[in-house]
Write a structure and sequence with these properties.
The complex is a heterodimer of chains A (307) and B (307).
Chain A lengths: L1 H7 L5 H15 L3 H18 L1 H4 L21 E2 L6 E2 L10 H37 L1 H15 L3 H12 L3 H28 L2 H8 L4 H38 L10 H12 L5 H28 L6
Antiparallel strand pairs in A: 1-2
Helix pairs in contact in A: 3-5, 3-12, 5-6, 5-8, 5-10, 5-11, 5-12, 6-8, 7-8, 8-10, 9-10, 10-11, 10-12, 11-12
Chain B lengths: L1 H10 L3 H5 L6 H11 L5 H15 L12 H36 L4 H15 L2 H15 L12 E3 L2 E3 L4 H33 L3 H8 L4 H38 L5 H10 L3 H29 L1 H8 L1
Antiparallel strand pairs in B: 1-2
Helix pairs in contact in B: 1-12, 5-6, 5-8, 5-10, 5-12, 6-8, 7-8, 7-10, 8-10, 9-10, 10-11, 10-12, 11-12, 12-13
The chains are: A mainly alpha (307), B mainly alpha (307).
Chain lengths: 307, 307
Protein backbone atom coordinates (compact mmCIF):
# COMPACT_ATOMS: atom_id res chain seq x y z
CA UNK A 1 0.00 0.00 0.00
CA UNK A 2 2.75 2.48 0.86
CA UNK A 3 4.39 1.82 -2.47
CA UNK A 4 1.19 2.75 -4.20
CA UNK A 5 0.89 5.86 -2.12
CA UNK A 6 4.26 7.12 -3.20
CA UNK A 7 3.61 6.28 -6.80
CA UNK A 8 0.31 8.15 -6.75
CA UNK A 9 1.54 11.26 -4.97
CA UNK A 10 4.15 11.96 -7.61
CA UNK A 11 6.00 14.95 -6.06
CA UNK A 12 7.02 12.73 -3.15
CA UNK A 13 9.66 10.87 -5.17
CA UNK A 14 13.07 11.66 -3.60
CA UNK A 15 15.06 12.32 -6.78
CA UNK A 16 12.40 14.56 -8.22
CA UNK A 17 12.00 16.50 -5.00
CA UNK A 18 15.66 17.42 -5.01
CA UNK A 19 15.52 18.82 -8.51
CA UNK A 20 12.36 20.70 -7.63
CA UNK A 21 14.11 22.26 -4.68
CA UNK A 22 16.99 23.31 -6.89
CA UNK A 23 14.60 24.75 -9.44
CA UNK A 24 12.87 26.62 -6.65
CA UNK A 25 16.17 27.99 -5.34
CA UNK A 26 17.15 29.11 -8.83
CA UNK A 27 13.89 30.97 -9.18
CA UNK A 28 14.20 32.44 -5.74
CA UNK A 29 17.60 34.09 -6.31
CA UNK A 30 16.29 35.97 -9.35
CA UNK A 31 15.10 38.71 -7.01
CA UNK A 32 17.94 40.46 -5.20
CA UNK A 33 15.50 42.10 -2.80
CA UNK A 34 14.07 38.76 -1.74
CA UNK A 35 17.55 37.35 -1.14
CA UNK A 36 18.38 40.43 0.91
CA UNK A 37 15.20 39.89 2.89
CA UNK A 38 16.10 36.26 3.53
CA UNK A 39 19.62 37.18 4.68
CA UNK A 40 18.22 39.81 7.04
CA UNK A 41 15.68 37.35 8.37
CA UNK A 42 18.33 34.69 9.08
CA UNK A 43 20.49 37.34 10.73
CA UNK A 44 17.64 38.41 12.99
CA UNK A 45 16.84 34.80 13.84
CA UNK A 46 20.46 34.26 14.90
CA UNK A 47 20.46 37.46 16.94
CA UNK A 48 17.29 36.37 18.70
CA UNK A 49 18.45 32.81 19.37
CA UNK A 50 21.88 33.84 20.66
CA UNK A 51 20.66 36.98 22.45
CA UNK A 52 21.99 35.94 25.91
CA UNK A 53 25.52 35.57 24.50
CA UNK A 54 25.52 38.62 22.25
CA UNK A 55 23.79 41.13 24.50
CA UNK A 56 26.24 43.20 26.57
CA UNK A 57 23.76 43.32 29.44
CA UNK A 58 20.86 41.24 30.73
CA UNK A 59 18.01 43.76 30.67
CA UNK A 60 15.94 41.66 33.09
CA UNK A 61 18.61 41.65 35.81
CA UNK A 62 17.54 44.71 37.78
CA UNK A 63 20.51 44.41 40.13
CA UNK A 64 22.94 45.18 37.29
CA UNK A 65 21.14 48.36 36.26
CA UNK A 66 22.60 51.63 37.46
CA UNK A 67 19.96 54.36 37.67
CA UNK A 68 22.67 56.98 37.06
CA UNK A 69 22.92 55.65 33.51
CA UNK A 70 19.29 56.25 32.54
CA UNK A 71 18.39 58.01 29.29
CA UNK A 72 21.97 58.21 28.00
CA UNK A 73 22.23 59.08 24.30
CA UNK A 74 23.68 56.51 21.86
CA UNK A 75 27.42 55.94 22.18
CA UNK A 76 27.76 57.05 25.82
CA UNK A 77 29.96 55.11 28.21
CA UNK A 78 28.36 53.81 31.41
CA UNK A 79 29.20 55.56 34.70
CA UNK A 80 31.30 52.56 35.77
CA UNK A 81 32.90 52.76 32.29
CA UNK A 82 32.41 49.00 32.00
CA UNK A 83 30.38 49.18 28.81
CA UNK A 84 29.25 51.48 26.04
CA UNK A 85 25.58 52.08 25.31
CA UNK A 86 25.89 51.97 21.53
CA UNK A 87 22.19 52.61 21.03
CA UNK A 88 21.68 54.56 24.24
CA UNK A 89 19.90 53.56 27.42
CA UNK A 90 16.26 53.82 28.45
CA UNK A 91 14.44 55.35 31.44
CA UNK A 92 15.44 52.44 33.70
CA UNK A 93 19.09 52.54 32.56
CA UNK A 94 18.68 49.44 30.39
CA UNK A 95 20.92 49.11 27.36
CA UNK A 96 18.63 49.66 24.35
CA UNK A 97 20.64 47.25 22.18
CA UNK A 98 20.31 44.42 24.70
CA UNK A 99 16.63 45.17 25.19
CA UNK A 100 16.12 44.96 21.42
CA UNK A 101 17.81 41.54 21.25
CA UNK A 102 15.58 40.15 23.99
CA UNK A 103 12.52 41.92 22.56
CA UNK A 104 13.26 40.38 19.17
CA UNK A 105 13.13 36.98 20.83
CA UNK A 106 9.65 37.52 22.23
CA UNK A 107 8.34 39.07 19.01
CA UNK A 108 9.66 36.21 16.86
CA UNK A 109 8.45 33.51 19.26
CA UNK A 110 4.95 35.01 19.30
CA UNK A 111 5.03 35.24 15.51
CA UNK A 112 6.26 31.73 14.78
CA UNK A 113 4.10 29.97 17.37
CA UNK A 114 0.90 31.74 16.41
CA UNK A 115 1.43 31.26 12.67
CA UNK A 116 2.26 27.55 13.11
CA UNK A 117 -0.86 26.98 15.20
CA UNK A 118 -3.02 28.97 12.78
CA UNK A 119 -1.51 27.00 9.87
CA UNK A 120 -2.42 23.65 11.44
CA UNK A 121 -5.94 24.63 12.53
CA UNK A 122 -6.79 26.61 9.40
CA UNK A 123 -5.47 23.99 6.99
CA UNK A 124 -7.39 21.22 8.73
CA UNK A 125 -10.63 23.16 8.61
CA UNK A 126 -10.06 24.19 5.00
CA UNK A 127 -9.16 20.71 3.73
CA UNK A 128 -12.01 19.01 5.55
CA UNK A 129 -14.55 21.52 4.32
CA UNK A 130 -13.28 21.22 0.74
CA UNK A 131 -13.19 17.42 0.76
CA UNK A 132 -16.59 16.84 2.28
CA UNK A 133 -18.35 19.95 1.03
CA UNK A 134 -22.03 19.90 1.82
CA UNK A 135 -23.45 21.47 4.93
CA UNK A 136 -20.40 21.13 7.17
CA UNK A 137 -18.20 22.74 4.55
CA UNK A 138 -20.66 25.56 3.95
CA UNK A 139 -21.05 26.19 7.67
CA UNK A 140 -17.29 26.27 8.26
CA UNK A 141 -16.77 28.67 5.37
CA UNK A 142 -19.59 30.90 6.61
CA UNK A 143 -17.73 31.20 9.93
CA UNK A 144 -14.55 32.09 8.02
CA UNK A 145 -16.42 34.71 5.97
CA UNK A 146 -17.92 36.31 9.05
CA UNK A 147 -14.56 36.47 10.73
CA UNK A 148 -12.75 37.90 7.73
CA UNK A 149 -15.35 40.65 7.40
CA UNK A 150 -14.11 42.10 10.69
CA UNK A 151 -10.79 43.94 10.78
CA UNK A 152 -8.13 41.71 12.35
CA UNK A 153 -7.02 44.28 14.88
CA UNK A 154 -10.55 44.77 16.16
CA UNK A 155 -11.08 41.04 16.71
CA UNK A 156 -7.74 40.78 18.50
CA UNK A 157 -8.47 43.82 20.65
CA UNK A 158 -11.83 42.51 21.80
CA UNK A 159 -10.42 39.03 22.45
CA UNK A 160 -7.57 40.43 24.51
CA UNK A 161 -9.88 42.66 26.48
CA UNK A 162 -11.65 39.44 27.46
CA UNK A 163 -8.55 37.30 28.00
CA UNK A 164 -6.27 39.84 29.66
CA UNK A 165 -2.54 40.40 29.20
CA UNK A 166 0.14 37.77 28.63
CA UNK A 167 2.32 36.22 25.93
CA UNK A 168 0.14 33.08 25.79
CA UNK A 169 -3.01 35.20 25.48
CA UNK A 170 -1.57 37.27 22.66
CA UNK A 171 -0.75 34.03 20.84
CA UNK A 172 -4.31 32.77 21.32
CA UNK A 173 -5.71 36.04 19.97
CA UNK A 174 -3.37 35.96 16.94
CA UNK A 175 -4.30 32.35 16.15
CA UNK A 176 -7.98 33.23 16.41
CA UNK A 177 -7.45 36.08 13.97
CA UNK A 178 -5.29 34.21 11.46
CA UNK A 179 -6.65 30.66 11.12
CA UNK A 180 -9.37 31.94 8.78
CA UNK A 181 -6.85 33.01 6.11
CA UNK A 182 -5.31 29.53 6.06
CA UNK A 183 -8.74 27.90 6.01
CA UNK A 184 -9.79 29.87 2.96
CA UNK A 185 -6.54 29.30 1.08
CA UNK A 186 -6.45 25.58 1.90
CA UNK A 187 -10.04 25.16 0.81
CA UNK A 188 -9.44 27.00 -2.44
CA UNK A 189 -6.43 24.86 -3.29
CA UNK A 190 -8.04 21.60 -2.18
CA UNK A 191 -11.20 22.13 -4.21
CA UNK A 192 -9.08 22.29 -7.35
CA UNK A 193 -7.14 19.16 -6.39
CA UNK A 194 -10.17 17.19 -5.24
CA UNK A 195 -11.38 16.36 -8.72
CA UNK A 196 -8.03 15.57 -10.27
CA UNK A 197 -7.26 12.11 -11.51
CA UNK A 198 -4.75 11.11 -8.86
CA UNK A 199 -7.37 11.70 -6.18
CA UNK A 200 -9.92 9.67 -8.10
CA UNK A 201 -7.34 6.92 -8.47
CA UNK A 202 -6.67 6.99 -4.74
CA UNK A 203 -10.40 6.81 -4.10
CA UNK A 204 -10.75 3.85 -6.42
CA UNK A 205 -8.20 2.05 -4.29
CA UNK A 206 -10.56 2.71 -1.38
CA UNK A 207 -7.92 4.42 0.72
CA UNK A 208 -9.31 6.01 3.86
CA UNK A 209 -10.30 9.66 3.56
CA UNK A 210 -7.69 10.68 6.12
CA UNK A 211 -5.01 9.14 3.95
CA UNK A 212 -6.25 10.74 0.74
CA UNK A 213 -6.54 14.10 2.43
CA UNK A 214 -3.13 14.17 4.14
CA UNK A 215 -0.93 12.10 1.87
CA UNK A 216 -2.37 13.00 -1.51
CA UNK A 217 -4.23 16.30 -1.47
CA UNK A 218 -2.36 18.20 1.25
CA UNK A 219 1.15 18.02 -0.32
CA UNK A 220 -0.22 19.63 -3.46
CA UNK A 221 -1.81 22.46 -1.50
CA UNK A 222 1.40 23.49 0.24
CA UNK A 223 2.67 26.22 -2.16
CA UNK A 224 -0.19 28.72 -1.67
CA UNK A 225 -0.21 27.97 2.06
CA UNK A 226 3.51 28.72 2.31
CA UNK A 227 2.90 32.14 0.77
CA UNK A 228 0.14 32.87 3.27
CA UNK A 229 2.33 31.61 6.13
CA UNK A 230 5.20 33.95 5.25
CA UNK A 231 3.01 37.00 4.84
CA UNK A 232 1.06 36.11 7.98
CA UNK A 233 4.28 35.84 9.97
CA UNK A 234 5.04 39.47 9.21
CA UNK A 235 1.45 40.33 9.90
CA UNK A 236 1.49 38.51 13.25
CA UNK A 237 4.66 40.26 14.40
CA UNK A 238 3.30 43.66 13.38
CA UNK A 239 -0.06 42.96 15.01
CA UNK A 240 1.54 41.83 18.25
CA UNK A 241 3.65 45.00 18.29
CA UNK A 242 0.55 47.09 17.70
CA UNK A 243 -1.41 45.38 20.48
CA UNK A 244 1.49 45.74 22.90
CA UNK A 245 1.83 49.37 21.90
CA UNK A 246 -1.84 49.92 22.71
CA UNK A 247 -1.27 48.38 26.13
CA UNK A 248 -3.31 45.18 25.70
CA UNK A 249 -0.55 42.85 24.51
CA UNK A 250 2.43 41.40 26.35
CA UNK A 251 3.03 42.38 30.00
CA UNK A 252 5.80 44.82 30.99
CA UNK A 253 7.87 41.96 32.39
CA UNK A 254 8.25 40.36 28.94
CA UNK A 255 8.84 43.34 26.65
CA UNK A 256 8.51 42.61 22.93
CA UNK A 257 9.63 45.15 20.35
CA UNK A 258 6.19 46.77 20.41
CA UNK A 259 6.33 47.13 24.18
CA UNK A 260 9.80 48.72 23.98
CA UNK A 261 8.50 51.25 21.45
CA UNK A 262 5.52 51.97 23.66
CA UNK A 263 7.81 52.56 26.66
CA UNK A 264 10.02 54.87 24.62
CA UNK A 265 7.11 56.85 23.20
CA UNK A 266 6.70 58.93 26.35
CA UNK A 267 10.36 59.94 26.26
CA UNK A 268 10.22 60.91 22.61
CA UNK A 269 8.60 64.31 23.21
CA UNK A 270 11.43 65.27 25.54
CA UNK A 271 13.97 64.52 22.81
CA UNK A 272 15.21 61.08 23.97
CA UNK A 273 14.25 59.63 20.60
CA UNK A 274 16.56 56.57 20.69
CA UNK A 275 14.51 54.63 23.25
CA UNK A 276 11.65 54.17 20.78
CA UNK A 277 13.52 54.77 17.52
CA UNK A 278 15.95 51.83 17.50
CA UNK A 279 13.41 49.16 18.54
CA UNK A 280 11.19 50.71 15.86
CA UNK A 281 13.89 50.28 13.23
CA UNK A 282 14.45 46.67 14.32
CA UNK A 283 10.73 45.93 14.08
CA UNK A 284 10.45 47.56 10.67
CA UNK A 285 13.46 45.63 9.32
CA UNK A 286 12.06 42.29 10.52
CA UNK A 287 8.61 42.93 9.09
CA UNK A 288 9.87 44.29 5.77
CA UNK A 289 12.42 41.46 5.38
CA UNK A 290 9.72 38.82 5.83
CA UNK A 291 7.40 40.64 3.45
CA UNK A 292 10.05 40.90 0.74
CA UNK A 293 10.55 37.13 0.94
CA UNK A 294 6.79 36.55 0.98
CA UNK A 295 6.17 38.87 -1.94
CA UNK A 296 8.69 37.06 -4.11
CA UNK A 297 7.42 33.63 -3.00
CA UNK A 298 4.00 34.68 -4.21
CA UNK A 299 5.42 35.61 -7.58
CA UNK A 300 7.11 32.23 -7.92
CA UNK A 301 4.46 29.96 -6.45
CA UNK A 302 1.25 31.63 -7.55
CA UNK A 303 1.01 31.41 -11.30
CA UNK A 304 -2.09 33.60 -11.27
CA UNK A 305 -0.08 36.54 -9.95
CA UNK A 306 -2.80 38.27 -7.98
CA UNK A 307 -2.51 41.60 -6.22
CA UNK B 1 -23.38 38.03 17.75
CA UNK B 2 -24.58 40.59 20.24
CA UNK B 3 -25.05 37.81 22.81
CA UNK B 4 -21.46 36.66 22.28
CA UNK B 5 -19.95 40.10 22.73
CA UNK B 6 -22.19 40.82 25.66
CA UNK B 7 -21.48 37.61 27.54
CA UNK B 8 -17.74 37.73 26.89
CA UNK B 9 -17.37 41.31 28.00
CA UNK B 10 -19.55 40.99 31.05
CA UNK B 11 -17.61 38.07 32.41
CA UNK B 12 -14.34 39.93 32.71
CA UNK B 13 -13.30 41.97 35.66
CA UNK B 14 -15.44 43.87 38.06
CA UNK B 15 -16.11 47.44 36.95
CA UNK B 16 -17.19 48.35 40.46
CA UNK B 17 -13.62 47.94 41.63
CA UNK B 18 -12.59 50.53 39.02
CA UNK B 19 -15.37 52.94 39.92
CA UNK B 20 -15.59 52.88 43.70
CA UNK B 21 -12.96 54.67 45.71
CA UNK B 22 -10.53 52.36 47.54
CA UNK B 23 -11.99 53.42 50.90
CA UNK B 24 -15.58 52.51 49.95
CA UNK B 25 -17.30 50.10 52.32
CA UNK B 26 -18.85 46.86 51.12
CA UNK B 27 -22.32 48.37 51.52
CA UNK B 28 -21.40 51.29 49.29
CA UNK B 29 -20.01 48.93 46.67
CA UNK B 30 -23.22 46.93 46.75
CA UNK B 31 -25.19 50.12 46.22
CA UNK B 32 -23.16 50.99 43.10
CA UNK B 33 -23.62 47.47 41.83
CA UNK B 34 -27.39 47.71 42.23
CA UNK B 35 -27.63 51.12 40.62
CA UNK B 36 -25.83 49.78 37.52
CA UNK B 37 -27.95 46.63 37.44
CA UNK B 38 -24.89 44.40 37.89
CA UNK B 39 -26.47 42.38 40.73
CA UNK B 40 -28.89 40.66 38.35
CA UNK B 41 -27.98 37.35 36.68
CA UNK B 42 -26.24 37.61 33.31
CA UNK B 43 -29.21 36.46 31.18
CA UNK B 44 -31.43 38.99 32.90
CA UNK B 45 -28.93 41.78 32.18
CA UNK B 46 -28.81 40.69 28.55
CA UNK B 47 -32.62 40.73 28.17
CA UNK B 48 -32.78 44.20 29.66
CA UNK B 49 -30.03 45.26 27.25
CA UNK B 50 -31.83 43.81 24.19
CA UNK B 51 -35.11 45.39 25.20
CA UNK B 52 -33.48 48.79 25.55
CA UNK B 53 -31.57 48.51 22.27
CA UNK B 54 -34.46 47.47 20.08
CA UNK B 55 -37.28 49.40 21.72
CA UNK B 56 -35.55 52.62 22.64
CA UNK B 57 -32.26 52.48 20.68
CA UNK B 58 -30.59 52.84 24.05
CA UNK B 59 -27.27 51.06 24.58
CA UNK B 60 -27.15 51.90 28.27
CA UNK B 61 -25.14 54.55 30.02
CA UNK B 62 -21.40 54.65 30.36
CA UNK B 63 -20.36 53.30 33.76
CA UNK B 64 -17.75 55.99 34.00
CA UNK B 65 -19.46 59.24 33.06
CA UNK B 66 -23.12 58.22 33.33
CA UNK B 67 -23.85 59.65 29.89
CA UNK B 68 -25.62 57.47 27.30
CA UNK B 69 -23.02 55.30 25.53
CA UNK B 70 -24.46 55.97 22.09
CA UNK B 71 -24.28 59.70 22.72
CA UNK B 72 -20.62 59.45 23.66
CA UNK B 73 -19.88 57.60 20.44
CA UNK B 74 -21.93 59.83 18.15
CA UNK B 75 -20.27 62.81 19.77
CA UNK B 76 -16.85 61.55 18.71
CA UNK B 77 -17.90 60.13 15.35
CA UNK B 78 -17.23 63.30 13.28
CA UNK B 79 -13.58 63.35 14.34
CA UNK B 80 -13.06 59.78 13.11
CA UNK B 81 -15.13 60.31 9.96
CA UNK B 82 -13.05 63.37 9.13
CA UNK B 83 -9.83 61.45 9.64
CA UNK B 84 -10.96 58.37 7.67
CA UNK B 85 -12.42 60.33 4.77
CA UNK B 86 -9.39 62.57 4.32
CA UNK B 87 -7.08 59.56 4.53
CA UNK B 88 -8.99 57.55 1.92
CA UNK B 89 -9.17 60.57 -0.39
CA UNK B 90 -5.42 61.05 -0.10
CA UNK B 91 -4.75 57.35 -0.67
CA UNK B 92 -6.93 57.20 -3.80
CA UNK B 93 -5.62 60.45 -5.27
CA UNK B 94 -2.00 59.31 -4.90
CA UNK B 95 -2.48 55.57 -5.31
CA UNK B 96 -4.47 55.43 -8.56
CA UNK B 97 -2.03 57.45 -10.74
CA UNK B 98 0.97 55.60 -9.32
CA UNK B 99 -0.77 52.25 -9.85
CA UNK B 100 -1.62 53.05 -13.46
CA UNK B 101 1.96 54.16 -14.04
CA UNK B 102 3.31 50.93 -12.56
CA UNK B 103 0.88 48.93 -14.67
CA UNK B 104 1.78 50.67 -17.93
CA UNK B 105 5.50 49.93 -17.80
CA UNK B 106 5.92 47.05 -15.37
CA UNK B 107 9.61 46.49 -16.18
CA UNK B 108 10.54 50.15 -15.85
CA UNK B 109 12.80 51.10 -12.92
CA UNK B 110 10.34 53.72 -11.67
CA UNK B 111 7.50 51.20 -11.71
CA UNK B 112 9.58 48.64 -9.87
CA UNK B 113 10.46 51.12 -7.16
CA UNK B 114 6.79 52.04 -6.81
CA UNK B 115 6.02 48.36 -6.24
CA UNK B 116 8.83 47.95 -3.71
CA UNK B 117 7.59 51.08 -1.98
CA UNK B 118 4.15 49.58 -1.76
CA UNK B 119 5.54 46.48 -0.06
CA UNK B 120 7.07 48.82 2.52
CA UNK B 121 3.81 50.74 2.79
CA UNK B 122 1.64 47.89 3.83
CA UNK B 123 4.16 45.89 5.77
CA UNK B 124 5.13 48.66 8.16
CA UNK B 125 2.81 48.72 11.15
CA UNK B 126 0.54 51.71 11.36
CA UNK B 127 1.71 52.93 14.74
CA UNK B 128 5.30 52.76 13.56
CA UNK B 129 4.64 55.09 10.64
CA UNK B 130 2.87 57.47 13.01
CA UNK B 131 5.77 57.43 15.45
CA UNK B 132 8.34 58.15 12.79
CA UNK B 133 6.26 61.02 11.42
CA UNK B 134 5.94 62.48 14.92
CA UNK B 135 9.66 62.09 15.47
CA UNK B 136 10.66 63.83 12.26
CA UNK B 137 8.01 66.52 11.83
CA UNK B 138 7.02 67.28 15.42
CA UNK B 139 10.07 66.55 17.60
CA UNK B 140 12.99 67.41 15.29
CA UNK B 141 11.57 69.91 12.83
CA UNK B 142 8.74 71.39 14.97
CA UNK B 143 6.70 71.90 11.80
CA UNK B 144 3.52 70.15 12.82
CA UNK B 145 1.77 69.38 16.12
CA UNK B 146 2.38 65.88 17.52
CA UNK B 147 -1.17 65.26 18.61
CA UNK B 148 -4.59 66.58 19.41
CA UNK B 149 -7.09 68.02 17.02
CA UNK B 150 -6.56 71.73 17.04
CA UNK B 151 -9.48 74.17 17.08
CA UNK B 152 -12.75 72.85 15.67
CA UNK B 153 -15.45 74.76 13.84
CA UNK B 154 -19.01 73.91 14.75
CA UNK B 155 -21.65 73.20 12.14
CA UNK B 156 -24.78 72.45 14.11
CA UNK B 157 -23.98 69.26 16.00
CA UNK B 158 -20.94 68.44 13.83
CA UNK B 159 -17.52 69.76 14.65
CA UNK B 160 -14.77 69.61 12.07
CA UNK B 161 -11.21 70.82 12.04
CA UNK B 162 -10.74 71.11 8.27
CA UNK B 163 -11.86 74.72 8.25
CA UNK B 164 -8.96 76.27 10.09
CA UNK B 165 -5.25 76.40 9.40
CA UNK B 166 -4.39 74.95 12.80
CA UNK B 167 -6.92 72.17 12.26
CA UNK B 168 -5.34 71.35 8.90
CA UNK B 169 -1.92 71.20 10.47
CA UNK B 170 -3.00 68.73 13.10
CA UNK B 171 -4.78 66.61 10.47
CA UNK B 172 -1.76 66.15 8.20
CA UNK B 173 0.26 63.66 10.26
CA UNK B 174 -2.55 61.26 11.29
CA UNK B 175 -4.05 61.35 7.80
CA UNK B 176 -0.67 60.57 6.22
CA UNK B 177 -0.17 57.71 8.67
CA UNK B 178 -3.37 56.00 7.57
CA UNK B 179 -2.97 56.94 3.91
CA UNK B 180 0.49 55.31 3.59
CA UNK B 181 -0.88 51.81 4.18
CA UNK B 182 -4.06 52.30 2.14
CA UNK B 183 -2.17 53.93 -0.70
CA UNK B 184 0.07 50.87 -0.99
CA UNK B 185 -2.95 48.64 -1.38
CA UNK B 186 -4.63 50.89 -3.95
CA UNK B 187 -1.41 51.04 -6.00
CA UNK B 188 -1.42 47.24 -6.22
CA UNK B 189 -5.08 47.05 -7.18
CA UNK B 190 -4.77 49.80 -9.78
CA UNK B 191 -1.67 48.15 -11.24
CA UNK B 192 -3.25 44.72 -11.49
CA UNK B 193 -6.41 46.16 -13.08
CA UNK B 194 -4.39 48.24 -15.54
CA UNK B 195 -2.37 45.26 -16.66
CA UNK B 196 -5.57 43.32 -17.15
CA UNK B 197 -7.29 46.04 -19.19
CA UNK B 198 -4.41 47.22 -21.37
CA UNK B 199 -4.34 44.32 -23.87
CA UNK B 200 -8.12 44.46 -24.37
CA UNK B 201 -9.68 45.52 -27.66
CA UNK B 202 -11.28 48.77 -26.61
CA UNK B 203 -7.95 50.21 -25.52
CA UNK B 204 -6.35 49.19 -28.80
CA UNK B 205 -9.33 50.62 -30.65
CA UNK B 206 -9.14 53.92 -28.76
CA UNK B 207 -5.46 54.16 -29.64
CA UNK B 208 -6.18 53.27 -33.25
CA UNK B 209 -8.64 56.14 -33.38
CA UNK B 210 -5.68 58.38 -32.67
CA UNK B 211 -6.93 59.62 -29.31
CA UNK B 212 -4.37 61.27 -27.11
CA UNK B 213 -2.66 59.07 -24.54
CA UNK B 214 -4.15 61.22 -21.77
CA UNK B 215 -7.65 60.56 -23.04
CA UNK B 216 -7.09 56.84 -23.50
CA UNK B 217 -5.79 56.49 -19.97
CA UNK B 218 -7.92 59.10 -18.23
CA UNK B 219 -11.25 58.12 -19.76
CA UNK B 220 -11.20 54.67 -21.35
CA UNK B 221 -8.84 52.91 -19.00
CA UNK B 222 -9.84 54.70 -15.81
CA UNK B 223 -13.54 53.93 -16.30
CA UNK B 224 -12.79 50.25 -16.57
CA UNK B 225 -10.41 49.89 -13.67
CA UNK B 226 -12.71 51.83 -11.34
CA UNK B 227 -14.73 48.78 -10.27
CA UNK B 228 -11.97 46.96 -8.37
CA UNK B 229 -10.71 50.27 -7.00
CA UNK B 230 -14.13 51.27 -5.69
CA UNK B 231 -14.54 47.85 -4.10
CA UNK B 232 -11.24 48.02 -2.30
CA UNK B 233 -11.58 51.69 -1.37
CA UNK B 234 -15.05 51.06 0.02
CA UNK B 235 -14.07 48.05 2.07
CA UNK B 236 -10.88 49.74 3.24
CA UNK B 237 -12.85 52.77 4.33
CA UNK B 238 -14.51 50.46 6.82
CA UNK B 239 -11.13 49.08 7.83
CA UNK B 240 -9.82 52.60 8.40
CA UNK B 241 -12.47 52.93 11.07
CA UNK B 242 -10.81 50.11 12.93
CA UNK B 243 -7.28 51.18 12.03
CA UNK B 244 -8.17 54.55 13.46
CA UNK B 245 -7.95 52.86 16.87
CA UNK B 246 -4.18 52.76 16.49
CA UNK B 247 -3.65 56.07 14.75
CA UNK B 248 -5.96 57.92 17.12
CA UNK B 249 -4.08 56.53 20.10
CA UNK B 250 -0.71 57.58 18.71
CA UNK B 251 -1.88 61.11 17.91
CA UNK B 252 -4.36 61.40 20.83
CA UNK B 253 -7.03 62.21 18.25
CA UNK B 254 -10.37 62.42 20.09
CA UNK B 255 -12.30 59.99 17.87
CA UNK B 256 -14.19 56.77 18.50
CA UNK B 257 -11.08 54.61 18.23
CA UNK B 258 -9.47 56.32 21.18
CA UNK B 259 -12.78 56.02 23.02
CA UNK B 260 -12.79 52.25 22.41
CA UNK B 261 -9.28 51.78 23.79
CA UNK B 262 -10.02 53.91 26.83
CA UNK B 263 -13.26 52.02 27.44
CA UNK B 264 -11.58 48.63 27.10
CA UNK B 265 -8.92 49.63 29.62
CA UNK B 266 -11.43 51.07 32.13
CA UNK B 267 -13.87 48.15 31.61
CA UNK B 268 -16.60 50.55 30.52
CA UNK B 269 -18.71 47.76 29.03
CA UNK B 270 -21.75 49.61 27.65
CA UNK B 271 -19.51 51.82 25.54
CA UNK B 272 -17.53 48.85 24.14
CA UNK B 273 -20.71 46.93 23.31
CA UNK B 274 -22.31 49.98 21.70
CA UNK B 275 -19.15 50.65 19.67
CA UNK B 276 -19.01 47.10 18.35
CA UNK B 277 -22.71 47.08 17.47
CA UNK B 278 -22.44 50.40 15.63
CA UNK B 279 -19.33 49.19 13.78
CA UNK B 280 -21.18 46.09 12.56
CA UNK B 281 -24.10 48.22 11.33
CA UNK B 282 -21.70 50.68 9.71
CA UNK B 283 -19.72 47.96 7.90
CA UNK B 284 -22.91 46.35 6.59
CA UNK B 285 -24.22 49.69 5.32
CA UNK B 286 -20.88 50.31 3.64
CA UNK B 287 -21.02 46.98 1.81
CA UNK B 288 -24.50 47.83 0.60
CA UNK B 289 -23.31 51.23 -0.59
CA UNK B 290 -20.42 49.68 -2.54
CA UNK B 291 -22.88 47.34 -4.26
CA UNK B 292 -25.08 50.27 -5.23
CA UNK B 293 -22.13 52.20 -6.62
CA UNK B 294 -21.29 49.14 -8.78
CA UNK B 295 -24.57 49.37 -10.65
CA UNK B 296 -23.94 53.04 -11.36
CA UNK B 297 -20.38 52.46 -12.57
CA UNK B 298 -21.03 49.33 -14.58
CA UNK B 299 -24.41 49.05 -16.32
CA UNK B 300 -23.72 45.36 -16.98
CA UNK B 301 -24.17 44.57 -13.29
CA UNK B 302 -27.64 46.04 -13.32
CA UNK B 303 -28.83 44.26 -16.45
CA UNK B 304 -27.60 40.96 -15.07
CA UNK B 305 -29.58 41.50 -11.90
CA UNK B 306 -32.65 42.38 -13.94
CA UNK B 307 -32.42 39.37 -16.23
Amino acid sequence: MTQMDIALASPALPAKRESMLRLFAQQFITSKLAVLGLILLVLFLCLAIFAPWIAPQNPFDIGKLNIMDSKLPPGSVSSSSAMTYWLGSDGQARDVFSAILYGLRISLIVGFVSVSAAFVIGTMVGLISAYFGGRIGALLMRIVDIQLSFPAILVALVLLSVLGKGVDKVIIALVAVQWAYFARAARGAAIVERNKEYVQAARCMSLSWQRILWRHIFPNCIPPLMVIATIDLAHAIALEATLSFLGVGVPVTEPSLGMLISNGFEFMMSGAYWIAFFPGIALALVVVAINLVGDHLRDILNPRNEI
Amino acid sequence: MSALVFAALYMIGDPVSMLASPEATDAERELIRQSLGLDLPLWHQYLIFLNKVFVHLDFGNSFLTGEPAIGLILDRMPATLELATSAMLMAVLIGVPLGIYAGLKPENLGARSVMTGSVLGFSLPNFWVGLMLIMVFAVFLHWLPAGGRGPVETFGPIRLSVFSWEGWRSLILPVTTIAVAKCALIIRVARAATRECLPLDYIKFARARGLSEARVLGVHLLKNILIPIVTIAGLEYGQVFAFAVVTETVFSWPGIGKLLIDSIITLDRPVVVAYLMLTVVFLSLLNLLVDIVYTILDPRVQSKAGA
